[in-house]
Amino acid sequence: MLNTENIQSLIDSGEGYNVEFKVRVPSKVRELIEEICAFANADGGYLLIGVDDNGQVVDTNLENDKRSAIQGSISEISPALHCELYSVNIVNKTVWVIDVPSGKDKPYIFSGSIYVREGANSQKLRTAEEMRSFFQECNKIFFDHIPCHWFNIYTDADEQMIKDFRTEAKLNPSTPDKQIFENLEMFTENGTAKNGAAMFFGKQPEQKFPHAVTRCVLFKGTNKVYIIDDKTFGGSLYQQYLQAMSWLESKLQVAYKIEGAGPREEIWEIPLTVFKEAIINALSHRDYYEQGASIMIEMFDDRVEISNPGGLLPIVAKNFGHKSMTRNPLIFGLFTRMHLVERVASGIPRMQEGMRDANLPEPEFHTEGMFTAVFKRQITNPANYGTVNGIVNGIVNDTINENEQAILNLLVTTPGLNASEISKYINKSLRTTMRYIKTLQDKDLIEFRGAPKIGGYYLTKI
């Protein structure tokens, strides 16, 4: 219980996040209980009855029936909340104090509603997004923690996914799967597998979670008018990551730098590491409660956009790039175990650093409703074999001439051409073209595939 000196100090400090003044008990006691519920859902606080908005103490008397009404209404808060109600004398005037603790069992609900403190005011949460954000901040209801009654991890899991996880997580081969699953907290208290376990290890979790997929779309131009390619990837979240990365690699421009007899260095127009960070971020942090949208990877002539449902949680928005709070701690933890996440809150800085190191503009981030990362492409004209960060799009090798380089560039964008077709493209005779082709084959840069009459030339596998 606070003494006179403590109460006077609170009054002198004025109303705020933890203090609310009331001249008297309102005619509708529920208005008082809404304030109490909001304090319990925050850090606790004090309702001082007998103090006006200016901090002036006015003598008040709280009859037994009023006190009983307040205590009775407090009992309607769920889960049960114990508050102290007592009086303190301030300069011969009585102030009644309702001492509200910071509840340990958040969220507290009164009359079917959740109330929270916003600065010096109490607010009712009205939208689903507000409620989800609050529940998540309270570590209360994460989508990936919900019991998944249809999934039996011992009979329904993808065995290859379990093997991949064990390998990437560097787990002891002798450790039983059961022990690993239990150590990873894949089950609820009553032994039911969680949603996160089904999405991470299930064979086809999209059959039950149709929104938990990754869609990849390639557009012609810089708007969403003409679609060139459209793929939707399901399966385990790790498989979605691998398939999305593979799709991106098949669409991005790449150069190969060759020095002597050493291995060829791949130089991508945008570093693949930034896409790894963005895709893992999307799979880990998306709002899986939102069933009307999926993760999107959209490629345009001038940019690549990676989006996931759900804006930033409030604590993350205030400290963007420095604080991390995931909507799906189980999924995020599994990716971390596979060493696909280096450290908490490192994803945004690593994307920024990766683009800077490649002399590219830093990614743009849009955080309202959908979280979108935008990566600018720097190809001047991909159809005409432009440059990728100053390197010719294709293979760069100081030991080949410009005609051989032209053939390599051609096969980057138009693989499978025969010698006659190549000769027309480079405007050389067939005999001369065959000589260039022979040189490139000897250097193991290109190879012929298919039947002699219908086959063509391709870049060799890297």
State the helicity in percent bands.
25-40%
- Taking pLDDT < 50 over at least 5 consecutive residues as the criterion, the unreliable ranges are 380-396
Strand content: 15-25%
**For the largest beta sheet, what order do the strands appear in spatially?**
9-8-12-13-15-14
- The pLDDT mean sits at 84
What oligomeric state best describes the polypeptide chains here?
single chain
Biggest beta sheet attributes: 6 strands, mixed
End-to-end gap: 74 Å
Rg, Cα atoms, Å:
31 Å
Structural class: alpha+beta
Please give the count of helices.
Answer: 16
Overall geometric form: elongated
Question: Got a strand count?
Answer: 20
Could you characterize the architecture of this molecule?
Strand 16 (387-388) and strand 17 (391-392) form a beta hairpin. The longest helix has 15 residues, at 237-251. By secondary structure, the chain is of the alpha+beta class. The strands form six sheets. A six-stranded mixed β-sheet has the order 9-8-12-13-15-14, with helices on one face. Mean pLDDT is 84; it is low at 380-396. Helix 2 (29-40) crosses helix 3, helix 9 packs antiparallel against helix 10 (272-285) and helix 15 (419-426) packs across helix 16. It is elongated, with a radius of gyration of 31 Å. It is built from 16 helices and 20 strands.
Task: Identify the notable features of this structure and list them briefly.
single chain; 462 residues; alpha+beta; 6-stranded mixed β-sheet; 4-stranded mixed β-sheet; 16 helices; elongated
Summarize the structure.
With 462 residues, the protein is α+β, with helices and mostly antiparallel strands.
